[in-house]
Design a protein that fits this description.
about 170 residues; 6 helices; elongated; Uroporphyrinogen-III synthase; uroporphyrinogen-III synthase activity; UROS/Hem4
């Protein structure tokens, strides 16, 4: 990689990963808080760069639209493909709660089990896009995270279990 290479990361977690596995200087990593929106002001300060946008075959339009709408020079590189896992060995297993962390998880559920019925299974979703995908699939969303009183999935599950068991 060229010495002048810069890295723009959506989160601190991604930046830490880069620092652990790629030999780079800290000053060349620019980090947002949690979302692509957080990076917009940082990117605007580096308008004359040429960007490589590594992504999945399934991705949001937010970043490419921002780059396109603001005249950035960039190329998109699909570096991994999101595909459903084969879960056929779980056909006879019933779960109290199924937690989803992305819309592709809901797609995987229905790819593996097209006749899936929620019945008494509780559905948990992390993030607004995943919550929307749960509802769009005709499922009942029982547990949602992050929320102000439950910023993590474990916190949301804990609150739900306490409420369901009348624990204060």
């Amino acid at each position: 990689m060229p010495a002048e290479m810069k890295y723009f990361c959506i989160s601190e977690q991604t930046a830490n990963y880069l620092q652990k596995y790629i030999v780079i200087r800290k000053r060349k990593i620019f980090v947002g808080q949690k979302t692509a929106k957080d990076l917009e002001e940082i990117l605007k300060k580096h308008k004359n760069e040429f960007y490589l946008y590594p992504c999945s075959n399934i991705r949001k339009e937010e970043i490419p639209l921002f780059l396109k709408d603001n005249g950035f020079k960039f190329s998109e590189a699909v570096i991994y493909e999101t595909v459903p896992s084969d879960l056929s060995d779980l056909a006879e297993v019933n779960y109290d709660i199924i937690a989803f962390f992305s819309p592709s998880g809901i797609n995987s559920l229905f790819t593996n089990f097209p006749e899936f019925k929620q019945n008494k299974t509780r559905i948990a979703a992390f993030g607004p896009t995943t919550a929307k995908a749960v509802k769009d699939a005709g499922l009942i969303l029982d547990i949602e995270a992050p929320l102000p009183n439950a910023p993590s999935m474990t916190g949301a599950l804990e609150l739900y279990i306490k409420k369901a068991n009348n624990i204060k």
